[in-house]
Amino acid sequence: MRKITLIDKFWDKQVEYEVPNKEKVIIGRSHKHGSDIVISKDSTTVSSYITISRKHCVLYINDEDVSVSDLGTRGGTYVNGEMLLERQKRVLEDGDKLRLGKGKELIVKIEGAENEGSEGYEISDEEVKVKG
Fold first, then answer.
1. Order of strands across the sheet with 88-92?
2. CA 54 to chain centre
3. In three state form, how does the secondary structure of the chain look?
4. Do 49 and 39 touch, CB atoms closer than 8 A?
5. What is the pLDDT of residues 46-75, one digit of tens each?
6. Counting CB atoms within 10 angstroms of each CB, which of 71, 79, 82, 103 has the fewest?
7. C-beta neighbour count of 58 within 10 angstroms
8. What separation, in Å, do the N-terminal and C-terminal C-alpha atoms of the chain show?
9. Alpha-carbon span 3 to 59, nearest angstrom
10. How big is the chain by its Cα radius of gyration, in Å?
């Protein structure tokens, strides 16, 4: 079984978000609006924090890989500096940098499984089922 952690380094602090063991994990800034992982307001500047949506992106986790897709945010989701198009899935590898909005960068740590390269591809509306 793989263990996925998102590492958030901000100044002299480090916050680690352990990704729950489920097929779809939503990252954002509000549990109230359905995010599974909530980015801490204390680990970013105000100007960066407001560019993180309540439901910002979704991680898809299966036996083969871990991928991410932006949920149509204004601030955007980036993998290693490259902005994802809305509904574009990107396979993540151990050590990738996942940026939410204008400045919140998370380092992806994947243990216990090999990942293939970061190929982008489109997904259909049926694949993205987000409540709220």
1. 37-38, 24-28, 57-61, 66-70, 88-92, 120-122
2. 12
3. CCEEEEEEEECCEEEEEECCCCCEEEEECCCCCCCCEECCHHHCCHHHHCCCCCCCEEEEECCCCEEEEECCCCCCEEECCEECCECEEEEECCCCEEEECCCEEEEEEEECCCCCCCCEEECCHHHCCCCC
4. yes
5. 556 678 888 999 999 998 999 999 999 999
6. 82
7. 24
8. 30
9. 13
10. 14
Residue length of the chain: 132
Q: Name residues whose C-beta falls within 8 Å of residue 124's C-beta, 6 or more positions apart in sequence.
A: 87
Supply 115's token pair. 């990942």
**pLDDT, tens only, 63-107:** 899 999 999 999 999 999 999 998 899 999 999 999 998 878 899
Angstrom CA distances, 119 to 9, 82, 110, 112, 128, stand at 26, 12, 17, 21, 19
Would you state the structure tokens that stand for residue 41, as one six-digit string?
Answer: 């307001």
Judged against a pLDDT cut of 70, whether residue 124 lies above it is answered with no
